[in-house]
Design a protein that fits this description.
There is one protein chain. A six-stranded parallel β-sheet has the order 10-7-11-12-14-13, with helices on both faces. It has a five-stranded parallel β-sheet with strand order 1-2-3-5-4, sandwiched between helices. By secondary structure, it is an alpha/beta fold. It contains 35 helices and 20 strands. It starts with 13 loop residues before the first helix and ends with a helix. Component of the pyruvate dehydrogenase (PDH) complex, that catalyzes the overall conversion of pyruvate to acetyl-CoA and CO(2).
């Protein structure tokens, strides 16, 4: 064990404490029973263990009781430790906001989810959790977004809530915690609490004793207040008696693993060990002798995280906006038969053990689901009154955020040659200058690649967001610079360090502004396309909870040639296709991009919408003149015929994005031999694949309808042939052959590139016009020797 905390500043109300202790035992029981029912009573059709983490729930019930029914305010938002999901469901069950049916189907279809979920659970969930550490870090970014809204006049200071994370101590091993901590320090966040269930046990082991005082040092260095709640009230009372300090010193010196083992062994083991280690200290031994085995075990495990009084006093001491880390010492499995056992992470009480616990709590068999079972009428009434008077019970239903108006069309940048990345920057700049309401709701962010992803002009126009004014020293000194970035409360760009994980957590927090704070923001985040993978877990986390944002990834593919393989993305189109809640586009022309961006701003707000991913490039390509707007509807469905097939031709080139010049060059070379060659421009492999998959699945549900891919390829003969090409994984487009049973010659990038210019790279990786011509010839004439 580590250190003695500072004693509480003031006592808590004994009557309140007694009622909250009663509620805590109910939460421990209901969470345990919910898990027991799923594993031992409910029919199992597949024979698999359901699980549910009874020990992890038991270690945090006192913390959640003190927080939810003692300290929580109406505007506070909480991210709950993933393995404490059953406790959260039990809280809402006691509030009457969760059904018994959902608890009985815990971890089953349609039942309470394994981990708290904004989109899958029926109870209110502020932040989804599940992937360890992400639910903690997002609260820091949410606190920053709250300050952004306050600074922009979208929220009153008095309405600010605390962004609170309940976390297991094993989550402190996650690197994203410290990446976030650094960013939070830079932005001087406030109104953020992280409460650690410090049970010092994870799945495989106990926490290393070397972590003594390290977490305190790290967080204090980053400007956080640290409240260490090691000892409960009973322990502190004993420590104050003659001989008590020796027990306190012994606890501080006891290794975490030995403390856990003694907890599991119980009172007799505690007595034997203390008598041996403290032999000769008569006053101390007298204190030990005054306790029977059960009382001694209760005393030694009376840690701060299990003491309602200690928790309430600590929360009350921190009633300000200073970011605070609470390290609440607990016992994993507290109050359960396997408390302290190193294997209890996935442990489950057997029927005999749950029956013993039921009896100890005075719950009548058959009344296990009664919210206040085992309590007398007066105790039940008192507990119910506290529950019903809690901030959680009184929280008002959030008002739907108002829609943000989107222009009828976005201006298409002019220029004979443009890259999609440059076009993106100019579209945003035009919006920033326009004064349109949409521009005022756009918030941009980037992990230290603002300039190289073409956000610089928008930032020049709209400024950096800072709670405290940040002057542009270079401009003030009249030093020539393209970036004139002053920081102030009205700024609309949130500058981040290079950690991509923070980018996606920031986008998640920005994208939840509507449901969390009642104001819709239109977040745009930019990143180098290959480095999406560095934050992929956080991207998935953002999409899972239905955060809405526009992700602009650029440069992409081989087109950042001189940078080499580490900067040349290959599989990101497959991420775009495979990620639920994210729609991927890869435009080639500026007018496509303007059309898609406008669609994206609408899609980010739609009830059935989601986030959007644009894969853009730095390669400038010649723009084309359009005869009319007839292509636009098809482009927003995923693709259109840039040149429709004609005559009796039975072959087409299917392509997307940066390889368009090579396709047009190859088509010119093939014009005499294949005069009716079709050129199918794919703007979204994702939408095409999604529509085709839905059509295929619909065959079995009676809801089948022709997909857009079917319609497009229907312009060809049934057994036509396709050459597909993309600056990315060839499987992004090669599946199109399955739509109508067509032969395919897929071109793309399937290995890490080297440095080089585009002609050399495209030749080496067979993305050039010659490779396309060869692929057409092979399909038409057979293999070329």
């Amino acid at each position: 064990m580590d250190m003695i905390a500072t004693p509480p500043a003031h006592p808590a109300d004994p009557a309140t404490i007694a009622v909250l202790e009663t509620i805590e035992t109910r939460l421990r029981w209901l969470s345990s029973w919910t898990i027991h029912n799923a594993n031992h009573l409910r029919d199992s059709r597949d024979g698999l263990k359901v699980g549910g983490h009874q020990a992890s729930c038991a270690s945090i019930t006192a913390i959640m009781t003190a927080l939810y029914f003692g300290a929580l305010r109406p505007n506070d938002k909480v991210a709950v430790k993933p393995h404490a999901g059953p406790v959260l469901h039990a809280i809402h069950y006691m509030l009457g906001q969760q059904s018994q049916d959902a608890l009985e189907r815990y971890r089953g279809m349609g039942g309470a989810q394994s981990y708290p979920s904004r989109t899958k659970d029926s109870i209110p969930v502020d932040f989804s959790t599940g992937s360890v550490g992400l639910g903690v870090a997002i609260t820091a970014f949410a606190s920053l977004i709250q300050d952004y809204l306050i600074a922009h006049g979208e929220m009153a200071e008095a309405d600010a809530g605390r962004m609170i994370a309940l976390m297991g101590d094993a989550e402190l091993d996650e690197g994203n915690i410290y990446e976030c901590l650094i960013e939070a320090y830079k932005h001087d966040i406030r109104n953020c609490w992280w409460i650690v269930d410090y049970n010092r046990q994870s799945l495989d082991s106990t926490t290393a004793d070397r972590m003594f005082r390290r977490f305190d040092d790290i967080f204090e260095t980053c400007g956080w207040r640290v409240e260490t709640l090691k000892h409960g009230k009973k322990q502190r009372e004993v420590f104050a008696q003659a001989g008590g300090q020796a027990i306190a010193d012994w606890i501080d010196a006891c290794p975490n693993a030995e403390f856990a083992a003694l907890t599991y062994q119980g009172g007799a083991a505690w007595r034997a060990r203390l008598n041996a280690d403290l032999a000769g200290q008569s006053e101390t031994l007298a204190l030990i002798a005054a306790q029977d085995d059960a009382a001694l075990a209760a005393l030694m495990t009376n840690l701060g995280g299990h003491c309602i009084a200690t928790l309430l006093e600590a929360f009350a001491r921190c009633d300000d906006d200073v970011p605070t880390l609470f390290i609440a010492y607990t016992v994993k499995g507290y109050g359960l038969p396997f408390a302290g056992h190193k294997d209890n992470h996935s442990g489950l009480m057997n029927p005999g053990q749950i029956a013993q616990l039921r009896g100890d709590l005075g719950i009548v068999e058959g009344e296990e689901w009664a919210p206040y079972g085992g309590l007398g009428d007066n105790a039940a009434a008192s507990a119910r009154a506290v529950v019903e008077a809690s901030a959680l019970a009184q929280a008002a239903t959030a008002k739907p955020a108002q829609a943000v108006a989107v222009p009828e069309c976005l201006p298409v940048p002019d220029g004979a040659e443009l890259s999609t990345q440059a076009a993106f920057g100019r579209i945003l700049l035009d919006l920033a200058k326009s004064g349109h309401p949409l521009a005022d709701r756009i918030v941009t962010t980037s992990p230290d690649v603002t300039v190289s992803t073409n956000l610089g002009a928008f930032v020049n126009q709209r400024g950096l967001f800072r709670r405290q004014e940040l002057k542009d020293v270079f401009s003030a000194a009249r030093i020539p610079t393209a970036q004139k970035w002053a920081g102030h409360g009205a700024g609309q760009h949130i500058e981040l360090g290079i950690a991509e994980n923070n980018l996606f957590l920031m986008l998640a927090a920005l994208g939840l502004a509507a449901p969390l704070f009642g104001t819709r923001l239109m977040p745009i985040g930019t990143v180098y396309d290959p480095f999406i993978a560095r934050g992929l877990d956080a991207l998935n986390y953002a999409c899972y909870q239905d955060a809405r944002f526009l992700l602009v990834a650029t440069p992409s593919g081989l087109t950042l040639g001189p940078e080499g393989g580490a900067h040349q993305s290959i599989n990101s189109p497959l991420i775009g296709i495979g990620q639920p809640g994210l729609t991927y586009f890869e435009p080639a022309f500026a007018d496509e991009l303007a059309l898609i961006m406008r669609w994206g701003f609408e899609h980010m707000q739609a009830d059935d919408g989601g986030s959007v991913y644009l894969r853009l490039t730095t390669r400038a390509i010649a723009q084309i003149e359009r005869a009319d707007d007839g292509w636009q509807d098809d482009a927003l469905r995923g693709g259109y015929w840039l040149k429709a097939p004609s005559g009796d031709v039975d072959i087409a080139i299917v392509f997307t994005g940066a390889v368009t010049p090579e396709v047009l060059e190859a088509a010119a070379l093939l014009a005499d031999d294949v005069p009716g060659l079709g050129l199918l421009m794919v703007t979204s492999p994702d939408l095409l694949h999604r529509g085709w998959s839905a059509r295929h699945a619909g065959r079995w549900t009676g809801a089948g309808a022709s997909s857009h891919a079917d319609t497009l390829l229907g312009a060809l003969a049934p057994h036509a042939k396709l050459v597909t090409i993309i600056d990315g994984a060839p499987s992004t487009l090669s599946w199109l052959g399955s739509v109508r049973g067509m032969r395919v010659s897929p071109l793309g990038t399937d290995r890490f590139g080297q440095t080089g210019d585009l002609p050399d790279l495209f030749r080496a990786y067979r993305l050039d016009a010659e490779a396309i011509v060869d692929a057409v010839a092979e399909l038409c004439l057979g293999p070329v020797d």
